[in-house]
Design a protein that fits this description.
3-stranded antiparallel sheet; 86 residues; 3 helices; alpha+beta
Length: 86
């Protein structure tokens, strides 16, 4: 059985789309101060859409501050932290 290139591409795109849709969407606002941030934040600690969270690199997830208003939190981000935007 010979598969055409178009058919093969169609079969490969489905698992890729499924994997991408399961990824949580968030951004690191000041990533220049923090490396490896995307893999360091467990999915359950990513802020909800429209909210932000200050994330400290050297703290356990349970010790991170709660999510809050982005405009308020971005006013005072400590040097050893980043602002995660949901």
């Amino acid at each position: 059985m010979k598969l055409s290139i178009t058919r093969l591409q169609g079969l490969l795109i489905l698992p890729i789309l499924a994997a991408m849709s399961s990824c949580a969407a968030y951004s690191v606002v000041n990533s220049d101060r923090y490396s490896g941030s995307s893999s360091a934040v467990p999915a359950e600690y990513i802020p909800s859409p429209g909210f932000c969270r200050i994330w400290f690199k050297n703290r356990d997830p349970e010790q991170q501050p709660a999510q809050g208003d982005c405009e308020t939190l971005k006013q005072d981000i400590p040097e050893n932290a980043v602002l995660l935007k949901g």
